[in-house]
Amino acid sequence: MGAPSTPDPYQAIAQLGAAPLWRYFGDVLPAQPKPKAVPYLWRYAALRPYLHHFLETCSLEEAERRVLMLVNPELTEPPATTTSLYAGLQIIGPGETAQAHRHTSNAFRYVIEGTGAYTTVNGERVHMHPGDLLMTPGWHWHDHEHEGDAPMIWLDALDYPITNAFDANFFELYGERTQKSTVPDDLSSRQFIHGQLSPAWAVPHTSSSPVGNYPWAETSRAFDAIADDAVGSEVEGIILEYKNPLTGGPVVPTMSCRISRLRPGFRGARTRRTTSAIYHVVRGTGTALVGDQHLDWTDKDVFAVPPWADFELRNDSGTEDAFLFSWTNEPVLRALGFLREELPERGSQS
Ligand SMILES: [Fe+2]
């Protein structure tokens, strides 16, 4: 049997659901990562007035959760912040609630402004204060209620680009708008706050942290316990990772959450990693050199670092510390054998 007589064999095989590998080789097996995501910085001072605008003009009936997604210019359909991570800014007004739901994607929030709101996670009310990290691992019921007298703003984070890459997300409404409290408020944080003294009877029901809140007060104490002359990481200064107390691993299976303190004048070593990362400036002023971009960051800004982009952090103040909260998809890359890091001074490490 000879070759088919179709005029364009490429078109013919396309109609048969086939494609010539030789025309796609560099796309499907690139010599090095070629992320669509670009380095980008979201200016908090510029976005904050719009959060308040929508608080006043957009009802909860319309928005349900009043969130401004932080969309990477090259990741708009669907919107995402980096290839595998998402961040948004949420505002909630006094007396408002966000209805209870759960989803497969892991989520957390980092509190930026205000007090008086709590998130109820599987029946536990977890109260929110600036600098707190609140966990909502995958498939945990969660809703928000705000009993304070001024708006609150927090950073929302989800791993839905990862979940959706596998078409593995499920979503469900609770049925009632909010959950009832079934355990003492902030119980999980108080039980696990004592470091090496964790409840011995606790058994992990999931691979995620059982802690509802990692409060700023404890983060601050952890920094205070570190010697003033400690060098820390040459890339990210005095950097601490929030841990799952039952496993010693990351807080959720897909994301590692960290906070770093950059001493005055800190200038980090330039590196590049296969991780995606998002940074939130808790306070301070500095520069992130990401690829060919100079991102000048200040209080409460957010910036994205795509995979395999040259990366260098600087604290531009000569007198004040800078604090950066950040998260990456490192646990996923580590589990899959995709984690690679390069420090130019030392050559490649993996
Ligand atoms: Fe949610």
Which key features would you list for this structure?
350 residues; alpha+beta; Jelly Rolls; six-stranded antiparallel beta sheet; 23 strands; binds fe (ii) ion
Structural description of this entry:
- This protein is α+β, with helices and mostly antiparallel strands and 350 residues long.
- It has a single domain, classed as Jelly Rolls (Sandwich).
- The chain is built from 8 helices and 23 strands.
- The strands form 5 sheets. It has a 6-stranded antiparallel β-sheet.
- A hairpin with a 2-residue loop joins strand 6 and strand 7.
- The N and C termini lie far apart (51 Å).
- The mean pLDDT is 94.
- Fe (ii) ion binds next to strand 4.
**Widest β-sheet, arrangement of strands:** 1-19-16-21-14-13
Average pLDDT works out at 94
Specify the biggest β-sheet: 6 strands, antiparallel
First CA to last CA: what distance?
A: 51 Å
| Oligomer status | single chain
Please give the number of β-strands: 23
Highest CATH level, the class: Mainly Beta
Keywords: Dioxygenase, Oxidoreductase
InterPro entries: Cupin_2, GDO-like, RmlC-like_jellyroll, RmlC_Cupin_sf
Organism: Geodermatophilus sabuli
GO molecular function, one term: dioxygenase activity
Give a brief outline of the structure:
InterPro entries: Cupin_2 (IPR013096), GDO-like (IPR047183), RmlC-like_jellyroll (IPR014710), RmlC_Cupin_sf (IPR011051). The chain is α+β, with helices and mostly antiparallel strands and 350 residues long. Helix content is 16%, strand content 31%.
